[in-house]
Design goal:
By secondary structure, the chain is an all-alpha fold. It has two helices and no strands. The radius of gyration is 20 Å and the shape is elongated.
Length: about 80
């Protein structure tokens, strides 16, 4: 169970980090639009790709956490059954 708690804590930390990055990017874009005046389409696409990659990684982390939780629960039931 400690392993599960650790993974949940790690998941929260990673999710928080992703949200922080997104918030900071959004803040910079709003606060300093002048930084993006000369950005060409390629650079804009790269930023979009970076943001998309971060969002996809967050989704994958959540999916992996869910799969891990399900496996842990399944094996815990099997262990309990074997101990009976």
């Amino acid at each position: 169970m400690q392993e599960r708690a650790k993974l949940l804590e790690d998941n929260k930390s990673l999710k928080s980090a992703v949200e922080t990055i997104e918030d900071k990017l959004h803040h910079v874009i709003i606060a300093r639009p002048d930084l993006f005046e000369n950005i060409g389409e390629k650079t804009s696409e790269q930023l979009d790709h970076l943001i998309s990659s971060i969002e996809n990684q967050a989704t994958q982390i959540i999916q992996l956490q869910t799969e891990h939780d399900q496996s842990t629960e399944k094996y815990q039931h099997e262990i309990n059954d074997l101990q009976k």
